[in-house]
């Protein structure tokens, strides 16, 4: 039987449950780490350090190849089945538009309502796909992006490159090149680039949150080589679906292949081996501020990364940033569930997203 809203756990109750789940996971992890340390102490050979370094490199290659295969399989199966189920029709679509003349691999797809050009400058919604930073395509997110377009927005869905080829900070810099291309062609496209909406799921939400931090914190923006045309791009609002906001917390969560995903994003270096400064740089949770854009944040009941969204929402509320939190419930409320319109809970999320965008 469906629960009444009054019977559903409060934000603080859900937050505490997620903390407890992670605490139990940590206890098991600590036991395993202590046992491994004891075994390593038994080997005192001088070549151990070099051997470990080589072993890490080999292990990363093997794990990366395995994880990439899984990501590609998921993307292909998803695109052929649920990912694009329920996509909106009667739209103008144009795919694989190159936005960087120096890199033919990078492109964006655009979606807009019919006759949109005749109705004045359109508001822009930029979408950043997920896929563990090492996979994902704009074409496999069209159930989501076309529904946004059908609500009256010009949608640009960006392919920004994959890890480790485009390791940090290349992805976010590529996204700003796409912003620059859109600004340069704003008159031709009849779009309003004065302030854009930005959304994404999972790794894409991580990059969208980074853009939010760049747009609201000059100190953070100065860390990146941003396109001159777009370095001051304003962001009107963010839609963050089951995002990653703290890379160390991904590993602590027990999320499947979280270690290899984050390692790939960092160019092959495990997050634990980054400098403290770099750990902060790759994690937008440290750069949230009172000027951060209004945010619609989605979490899911059956997602090991849900705590990261609760942490984000909690911090934004304390900063006074307008934030709407949508917590997906039920059996199918899994990681990044809201990208597919095949689910009732996803369609409920979409209605709330449209209302959020319309309110800004």
UniProtKB/TrEMBL annotation:
The keyword DNA repair does not apply. Residues 108-305 form the BD-FAE-like domain. Keywords: Hydrolase. It comes from the Bacteria. GO terms for molecular function: hydrolase activity. The keyword Hydrolase applies. Pfam families: BD-FAE (PF20434). InterPro entries: AB_hydrolase_fold (IPR029058), BD-FAE-like_dom (IPR049492), GDXG_lipolytic_enzyme (IPR050300). SUPFAM superfamilies: alpha/beta-Hydrolases (SSF53474). This is Alpha/beta hydrolase. It comes from Candidatus Caccalectryoclostridium excrementigallinarum. The lineage of its organism: Bacteria, Bacillati, Bacillota, Clostridia, Christensenellales.
């Amino acid at each position: 039987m469906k629960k009444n809203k009054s019977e559903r756990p409060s934000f603080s109750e859900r937050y505490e449950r997620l903390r407890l789940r992670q605490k139990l996971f940590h206890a098991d992890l600590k036991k395993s780490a202590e046992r491994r340390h004891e075994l390593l102490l038994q080997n005192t050979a001088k070549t151990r350090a070099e051997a470990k370094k080589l072993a890490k490199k080999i292990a990363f290659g093997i794990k990366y190849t395995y994880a990439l295969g899984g990501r590609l399989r998921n993307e292909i199966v998803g695109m052929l089945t649920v990912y694009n189920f329920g996509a909106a029709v009667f739209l103008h679509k144009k795919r694989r538009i190159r936005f960087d003349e120096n890199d033919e691999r990078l492109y964006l797809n655009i979606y807009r309502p019919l006759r949109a050009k005749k109705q004045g400058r359109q508001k822009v919604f930029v979408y950043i796909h997920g896929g563990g930073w090492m996979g994902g395509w704009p074409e496999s997110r069209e159930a989501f992006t076309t529904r946004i377009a059908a609500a009256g927005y010009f949608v640009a869905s960006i392919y920004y490159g994959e890890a480790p080829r485009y390791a940090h900070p290349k992805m976010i810099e590529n996204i700003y090149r796409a912003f620059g291309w859109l600004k340069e062609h704003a008159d031709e496209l009849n779009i309003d680039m004065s302030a854009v909406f930005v959304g994404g799921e999972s790794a894409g939400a991580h990059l969208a949150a980074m853009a939010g931090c760049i747009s609201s914190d000059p100190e953070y923006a100065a860390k990146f080589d941003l396109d001159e045309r777009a370095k001051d791009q304003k962001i009107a609002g963010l839609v963050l679906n089951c995002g990653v906001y703290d890379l160390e917390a991904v590993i602590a969560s027990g999320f499947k292949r979280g270690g290899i995903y984050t390692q790939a994003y960092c160019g092959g270096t495990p997050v634990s081996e980054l400098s403290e400064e770099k750990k902060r740089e790759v994690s937008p949770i440290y750069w949230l501020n009172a000027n951060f854009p209004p945010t619609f944040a989605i979490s899911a009941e059956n997602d090991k990364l849900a705590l990261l969204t609760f942490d984000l929402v909690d911090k934004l509320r304390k900063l006074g940033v307008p934030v709407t939190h949508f917590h997906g419930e039920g059996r199918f409320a899994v990681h990044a569930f809201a990208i597919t319109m095949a689910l009732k809970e996803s369609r409920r999320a979409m209605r709330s997203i449209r209302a959020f965008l319309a309110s800004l």
